[in-house]
Amino acid sequence: MKNFSRLSNLILLAFFFASCDIIEPPFVETINQIPADEQCLEDAKATDPFGPSSPAITRKVLFEEMTGHKCGNCPAASETAVSLTEGKYAGQMILVGVHAGPLSLPDGSGKYETDYRTSAGNELYSELNAFDAVPFGAIDRASFGLGASTWDTKISQRLQVPPKVGLRIFNCYDADSAAVTTVIDVKFLEAGTNQEYLAVYLVEDEVIDYQKDYRLADSDIPDYHHHNVLREAINGTWGVPLTTETVNKDDRFTVSYSFKLSDDYDPAHCRVVAFVHQFDTYEIHNAEIAEIQ
Amino acid sequence: MLKSLHYYLFTGFILLFLYPAAAQQTPLKNISGSFQTDVQLLFPDSLIGAEAVDEKVLSNSYLQLSYQQGNFSAGLRYEAYLNPLLGFDRRYEGQGIANRFASYNTDRLELTVGNFYEQFGFGNVFRAYQEWSLGIDNSVDGVRMRFKPVDGLAIKGILGRQRKFWETSESLLRGGDLEVNLNELLPSWEEKTTQITLGSSFLNKFQADDDINLILPENVSAFAGRASIVHQGFNLDAEYAYKINDPFQLNKFVYNPGQSIYLNMGYVQKGLGILVSARRMDNMDFRSERSVSLQELTLSFLPAISRLHTYRMTTLYTYATQFNGEVGGQATLIYTIPRKTKLGGKYGTRIQLNYSRFHGLDTTFTEAPFLYESSFFGDPSLIYFEDANIEITKKWTRELKTIVSYIYMRYNADVVQLGTRSTNIGVVTTHLAIGEAQYKFNRKLTLRSELQWLRTKQDMGSWAMALAELSVSPNWVISVFDEYNYGNPEPDKRVHYYTANIAYAFGPNRMTVGYGRQRSGLLCIGGICREVPASNGFSFSLMSTF
Questions:
Q1: ipTM
Q2: How far is B215 from chain A (nearest CA, A)?
Q3: Residues 186-245 in A contacting B (C-alpha not used; CB under 8 Å)
């Protein structure tokens, strides 16, 4: 009997060790990674993004609008977000539409069949949206608002905080191969910490699909325009550390990614969003956005 | 397709029940079951933040049927969420057969196909269970074997997928458990006064890696070893659990292995009981899928081990286990001052002292945001919860019994309620004084009353509560209570949360009708919690067993 017991334990242990996938670093795989476009890297290097003749560094707030295609209260909030992005805060606010949470689930109704959720979006929703409800706005991940009523004020307050970094995005797109190379330059305008991360997202604007809107008698809109939908987190949800050392004022970094654009996305509406944030507080120092072509 | 399958299954099952009964003209003596329906009629109430509910009426209902014939048993549960009660996940919406099983059971062997509930050891790596009022049903749909080759040796094996509302989860579960009772297994141990049981368990889940950013483990396994020792009045339970890297939504995709150490010691003798529990947990939340929220698809069962208070005011700040990491424990001393002594009085006096404390891990990222290090004893300054309380129960006469309690609590609302370390509400310090009296007028009529006072300067400020409950045996229980948030820093939120309930029991049936305002907060049962939104309205509940 002792042998039987030993044998059973051995079988359990064998199962345990045989059926484990232990992953070693690095854990991040850059999406659809392809060789870099060397010409693009050279072209990016040719102009100094922070030189005397370059455009002045602008403070841009990253506004992550958590939403869902079956959220009937979201279109009204989204109108507020788009109106602020294109109007009052044009050039100072970057909108990213994060589809996540229960109201983003696709269904078999024949209407809401597209799954706009992404693993990055799910993670952001889980981490930032303590209310587990939409519409929800994260303003530079420093302040948050459930419903649209407080967004304007919070964005205005956030814009008063001077930018800690300057960013430039230099994109190259080859239509034949659908290859995108994005080169991001970062300059610290003041000293930072050893937790400074660069995150790079791909968003697609003008995605036309179903959206629920409770303001309408027939609440299912078949041709709703979804703005700046988060498609991919190119270097992971939280990005990658710029350095493991403490960052000094005027430190500069250049990071590039090359990837193949999915056939499902329209390159004419795709944009790269880049931002630098302090990982331990999530607070975003500054952000930038650029068309891929 | 699934619905029609369920329809035929349901019809077949009913025929299975009815055919032998009809043929033999005998009562359906092999069938047992239960029925429950909970209905809410809700109104908007802007004062307490209760939002309008489009459907006005919400209901959760189920019918459980079980059939037993010799070694064979089968059962099913029909559930209807029309639509789900407030606070329940909307994905439950709908109705159908949510659970069905067939089982063959002998002394040594039990085989089950279909839905089953199971627990390995203390549940640190696996517990499939149902808790109706929390909206939890994480049964496994698959195959289970329980085998006892000899006395003192028990083996379990499972294969299947976990229930996910009206579907099953994406992942596949495989696991086993082995338990050895030395006193039953070894003839030389039969007469020993020390009882020792050892066990080990293992669970693996497979979920495909469909993430384009991260390299994720597709096969994740967890393992646990445990021991239970009982010697006269003393008992010790211990379990160590380990889980390999399992990055998923709720652990923020960290690749650290998970670990949990749980210890529970008790000593009991006449008039005295001592209970000490401790746990260190680091990233031990184990779920069937990576994209989950709240209490969805839990595999590991990790209830809070702090004292489970039952008084209503204590539920304002109930501790819930912090799955990603906590260190803490609790100690309880129960002493009964003997009867017919000066302090004990005619019937004796029971005193219960309890203290519990939990704090966070001291984590430093070594490869942020994926790997961190943590010290074994955590960071005591990162307080999550602290509770020191005393309860004195005294029976004065045959008719009158009283319970008085004082509870001091510190509760990190940001961590426990919002799941964040950033400061919003902060650590709330409360003092609670509670008095309960129960008076039996006669064999049929009992009146129970409670007065509760919670004092705090933080969060929603101070509260007071009064309750009266009249029981007229054996049929009626009538209760009214009011919670008054008189200390709310915002004067227009100094609101009364009043509730009245009437319950009527007849045979194995119980019907309850109520009206009231319910404040938002955590509803906890057995240390597992779910969020309950504020509501205002009528409720109706019917429970029946047959």
A1: 0.76
A2: 5
A3: 195, 197, 232-233, 235-238, 241
